Amino acid sequence: MQKNILIIPGDGIGPEVTACGKAVLEEVAARYGYAFAFEEAQMGHEAILATGVALPDETFEKAKASDAILFGAVGHVRYDNDPTLKVRPEQGLFRMRKELGLYANIRPVILFDELLDASSLKPEIVKGTDILFFRELTGGAYFGEKVRSEDGEMASDLMVYHRYEVERIAVKAFEAARTRRKKVCSVDKANVLESSRLWREVVQQVARRYPDVETTHMLADNTAMQLIKHPTWFDVIVTENLFGDILTDETAQVVGSMGMLASASIGDGTGFFEPIHGSAYDIAGQDKANPLASILSAALLLEIGFGMKEAAKQVNDAVARVLKAGYRTSDISGRMGHKDKIVGTREMGALVI
Ligand code: ATP
Ligand code: MG
C-alpha cells in the first residue's frame, strides 16, 4: 500500500539536511519495493515571508492527509533579536504539535562507538550511552496561558498538566522500557512544583502496572548533573515538556553533536520526525551541516511511523559503517581530527546511501 510522506524542509539548514533524509527514504523504497509518495510544504520563517503565517492552512491540510512527516527545522536570527515580533516561526511547530496531537517526543540518545572522541566528556564516562527520552510535548509551561501585564512589568507562563496527559506518556515510556533494559527514570521537580507532584503521583500509579520495570524518580536539577556524571546509568527517561527540552540538548553533547540526534513526535495520528537541532543559520547554505540527524530521523520514520524495522536497521547500520570508515562532518570531528575524512552535507548523505 502506498505511504504518503510529507517533507517540510523549513528554514536555515533544514532544506539541506532534509534533502538527505528524503534521499535515504527514496533509496529504501527502491530497495525494498515500498511505494512512498512524497509531497512538500512550507513552515516557519520562509512560510511567514511567503504567506504571512508560520503554518499555512495548506501545509496543515497536507500534514493531516499524510502518513508521516519528515521535518527539518524552523527559525531565523531576526526573531532572536526582536522578541516583540508577533508572528514567529515556532508558532507553526507548536500549532502542528497541538493539532496533530503529538504529545510524545521520543529522542534516542545513542553514542556511536566511532564517535567516542567527539563527546565533550571522557570516553570512559560516555562509552555505551544509550538513553531513550520521552518528552511530553503538548502541555506544561509552553502551552499554558501566557500573560503580560498592561504596564509590561510582569509576565507569566502557566505550567499546567492533567492526569491523562501524564498517564498516556508514562504508559508509552514503560512500554518502551520493556523492550530495553527495563528501567524508567521519571524526572520532575516534585519538591517545589504542584504540577510535578501530580506528575510523580500518576507515574507511580502507572509503574504499579509494570512490576517488571525498575522505576526511579529524580529531580530535574539532579538529573542535569547525573546525565553528565553517569550517562550510562540511564535507560528510559520520561519527563515534562520544559525539562525534556533542556535535558535532551544537554545529553546531545554527551554523544558528540546536535547533528547526530533524531526525534519522533507521536500521538494518535500522523507521526512527525525531525532532528533535534534547529535552523543553525551560522552554517546554513554552506554544505557544512551534519545530515545524520535527519537521516536517523528518516530511520525513526520507517521504524516507529511505518513499523519497517528491518529497513530502519539498515539505515542505522549504514550510518555506523560510514562513521567507521572515518567520514565526519566538521561538527563530529573529534580530538583525533587529523585522522578524520571531513566531508560536506551532500557527500555525507551520498555515503550513507
Ligand atoms: P534554532 O533557533 O532554530 O534552535 P539555532 O541557531 O539555535 O537554531 P541550533 O540548531 O539550536 O541552532 O544549534 C546550535 C548550534 O549547533 C548551531 O549554531 C550550529 O553551529 C550547531 N549545529 C546544530 N545543528 C547542526 C548540524 N546538523 N550540523 C552541524 N552543526 C550543527
Ligand atoms: Mg536552538
From TrEMBL:
Q: Family, per the entry?
A: Belongs to the isocitrate and isopropylmalate dehydrogenases family. LeuB type 1 subfamily.
Indicate yes or no for the key word Chaperone: no
| Protein's organism | Parapedobacter koreensis
Single Gene Ontology MF annotation: NAD binding
Q: Where in the cell is it found?
A: Cytoplasm
Query: What EC number(s) has UniProt assigned to this enzyme?
Result: 1.1.1.85
**What's the protein here called?**
3-isopropylmalate dehydrogenase
| Gene name as annotated | leuB
Pathway where this protein functions = Amino-acid biosynthesis; L-leucine biosynthesis; L-leucine from 3-methyl-2-oxobutanoate: step 3/4
- Does the keyword Repressor belong to this entry? no
Q: Which SMART domains match?
A: Iso_dh
Reading the lineage from the top rank, the first entry is Bacteria
Taking every annotated instance into account, which residue ranges of this chain make up the domain Isopropylmalate dehydrogenase-like? 4-352
Output the Gene Ontology cellular-component terms: cytosol
Q: How is the co-factor bound, per the entry?
A: Binds 1 Mg(2+) or Mn(2+) ion per subunit.
Report keywords, A-Z: Amino-acid biosynthesis, Branched-chain amino acid biosynthesis, Cytoplasm, Leucine biosynthesis, Magnesium, Manganese, Metal-binding, NAD, Oxidoreductase
Q: Which catalysed reactions does the entry list for this protein?
A: (2R,3S)-3-isopropylmalate + NAD(+) = 4-methyl-2-oxopentanoate + CO2 + NADH
Positions bearing the site annotation: Important for catalysis? 142, 189
Q: Which Pfam families match?
A: Iso_dh
